[in-house]
Amino acid sequence: IVTVNCARLLKADHHATNGVVHVIDKVISTTTNSIQHIIETEESLETLRAAVAASDLNSLLESEGQYTLLAPTNEAFEKIPRETLNRILGDPEALRDLLNHHILKSAMCAEAIIAGLTMETLEGTTLDVGCSGEELTLNGKPIIANKDILATNGVVHFVNELLIPDSAKTLFELAQESEVSESMNLFRQAGLSSHLT
Predict the structure, then answer these.
(1) What does pTM read for this prediction?
(2) Transmembrane region positions (predicted)?
(3) Could you give all domains of the chain from N- to C-terminal order, each with its CATH number?
């Protein structure tokens, strides 16, 4: 599926005597802001703005290139436990992994996303994209709140849930998501819970 500034290409290569015409489904608007500028001016991305500044990703997000930012809203950050958020924000390596997990290596408009597509992030991990009715899904969850915010160096989709990669989780958090509850009980009984957190 081909898009032009997130407008879908409907019919291509209509040849005329003085050129060629491609038919698209939207009016293309002027794009003057970088992804970084969008983060700096959007009220619902205040927490993300602070996180990007703390991890020195500003220069990447205002540089030339073609990226897709899955921008977690303030609401997304508020959904995770305060203790977990403070730990990630206080750990530069975990914070950078978290943010890079929300940046795709290419500009991907919603119209061009095909269900079942696997996309690679800057962190080197992958995200599975699909559909649930009219909504796009990431890793099976319909969490894209606002899509196709165009920037000079890519596109931004707002997401209302944080996508935390394994590299930004503690051993305890990873264990909670897997089938090792009996092992966790043994660690607790041995007084070793603090090592997992």
Answers:
(1) 0.85
(2) none
(3) 1-29 (no CATH), 31-164 (2.30.180.10), 169-196 (no CATH)
